[in-house]
Amino acid sequence: MSDTEVVERAARLRSLECTWELGATPSSRRSAQFTRQALMIRPRWDLLDTGFERAGRARSRRRSGQGEEMVERVRLRLTDYAAEWAPSQDAFARMATALHTSLGAPTDRRPGSPAAVHWAAPDTTLVLEHTGDAVYLELVTNKRLSLDEELLRMDEEGLL
Length: 160
Fold this sequence. Notes:
Blueprint: H1 3-14, H2 26-29, H3 57-66, E1 73-77, H4 85-103, E2 108-110, E3 115-120, E4 124-130, E5 135-141, H5 142-156
Antiparallel strand pairs: 1-5, 2-3, 3-4, 4-5
């Protein structure tokens, strides 16, 4: 993917004007600025709802929680090098430089594995991430990102 395409996708992700609520109508969730295209669909499992549920408080809690579900991230895979570190690392560095030129200085840089560069906004953060064999561009809510970081910290401290 060229630098221009990466910058274009980042701009389109950051400019999404849609609700993050899962319970919203399909037309309000979809953004006209970011068209969806299904390249391949592979069913991995089926869910059969039998209709049998335990009555009581657990059921009402589950229903009220469903009404508050939110989409927390939109993640795009930009590369696929089949576990080859060098080309993936080069692509990550090139893309990070292109986004820095376009979006300005990142708000956070995370070296290591996975390496990540963040551009924070008031409600969401754009993340460019290198996982070793692929580079991802992700728009994530700040609330979800904060929770992910707390879980990672707890895991590193052996609390999980």
